[in-house]
Design a protein that fits this description.
Strand order of the largest sheet: 1-2-5-4-3-6-7-14-13
Oligomer: single chain
Largest sheet: 9 strands, mixed
Low-confidence stretches: 1-7, 132-136
Helix content: 25-40%
Distance between the termini: 32 Å
Shape: globular
Order of helices and strands: EEHHHEHEHHEEHEHHEEEEEHEE
Mean pLDDT: 91
Length: 334
């Protein structure tokens, strides 16, 4: 049953207590026994990883956060008017940093009644609830706005979303680019299946551009992204008792022009054998062998429109920042 922690805040948890631990173990077994080793990017974001990513978003090379925020700042009123949402559902909400721009605009139209942040981390949602955004802005400035937080994995539990009101689902930050094309197609299909005709999807997508701009965004001069990338090994050491030596891996960011995505990898500086006791796994790495830790797909408008259409959405609006670096689309469920 949902646990009410404030008069206008409800937290609903759909995950078993051991969900994250089991998911980590399964990802490690699957990814590190594959011929081409990989780890999914969701394991970057422990407390230290989240701090490092916050630092990354302020680096001069890392444009996506600033570009998307500029679009939302300029277009939030139009988004609110077109969507007419009474319920804003934010997937992967985390700290809900950008949400106030949409909340401001939707409240100004008089439509918004409920904000539904969805995240796999109960702690992140409760932390956001106790912070400035929910405690001060939502509860005081926006009196009467209900917050219905949902602890769930948005790649698996879209059928658990609250169905009250006329909903706009938001997935911001270019997060969809972390999914491989088959997973993207499945995700968009699942979003469409969770929505009623006329409800909307607000989607942030980083755009294809010169590798001279893209690669530095994932390999900054200060080395913050390198620390962020290696931190995933810290997570495995702490949670699974692994004995990865972080200094034995180089951070690598490459542009794959055929796939039109950035790959982040960790490259072994020498041959090694790594033990991961919690999953009874020993991983042999050759000198120069790589573990892929992230893909970040980049998009073109026509590609976004085609993927949305295949999932049952119609592209209603398309906006970019002034330099055409990032795209935000509003799509309507048919």
């Amino acid at each position: 049953m949902p646990a009410t922690i404030a008069s206008t805040l409800v937290v609903e948890n759909h995950l078993p207590a051991d969900f994250i631990a089991r998911a980590l173990r399964q990802d490690v077994i699957t990814g590190l026994t594959a011929p081409d080793k990989w780890l999914p990017p969701r394991w970057f974001y422990d407390d230290r990883g989240s701090e490092l990513f916050d630092e990354i978003t302020r680096l001069p090379e890392y444009y996506p956060t600033r570009a998307e925020r500029s679009i939302l700042r300029a277009r939030a009123a139009e988004i609110a008017e077109v969507s007419a949402a009474t319920s804003l559902v934010e997937l992967g909400a985390g700290s809900a940093e950008k949400t106030h721009l949409l909340v401001d605009a939707l409240r100004a139209t008089g439509s918004l009644r409920t904000y539904v942040p969805v995240d796999v981390s109960d702690a992140a949602l409760r932390g956001a609830a106790a912070g400035l955004l929910w405690e001060a802005a939502l509860h005081e400035e926006y009196g009467g706005l209900a917050v219905h937080a949902v602890v769930a994995d948005f790649e698996r539990h879209l059928d658990r979303l609250p169905v009250d009101g006329h909903r706009m689902v938001a997935l911001l930050g270019g997060t969809i680019g972390n999914l491989a094309p088959p997973d993207r197609a499945r995700f968009l299909h699942d979003v469409r299946a969770a929505l009623r005709p006329g409800e909307t999807l607000l989607l942030g997508t980083d755009l294809v551009k010169s590798p001279d701009v893209l690669v530095p965004a994932y390999d900054d001069a200060a080395g913050v992204t390198a620390q962020f990338n290696r931190n995933v090994l810290n997570v495995l050491n702490r949670e699974l008792g692994a004995d990865f030596e972080l200094d034995a891996f180089d951070h690598v960011a490459v542009w794959d022009a055929r796939q039109e995505w950035i790959e982040m990898r960790l490259r072994a500086r020498h041959a090694m054998q790594v033990r991961i006791p919690a999953v009874e796994l020993t991983v042999d790495l050759e000198r120069g062998e790589e573990i892929r830790t992230e893909i970040s797909a980049k998009f073109r408008r026509e590609g976004v429109a085609a993927e949305l259409s295949a999932a049952g959405f119609g592209l209603t609006r398309w906006w970019t920042d002034d330099e055409g670096r990032f795209g935000v689309s509003l799509a309507t469920a048919g």
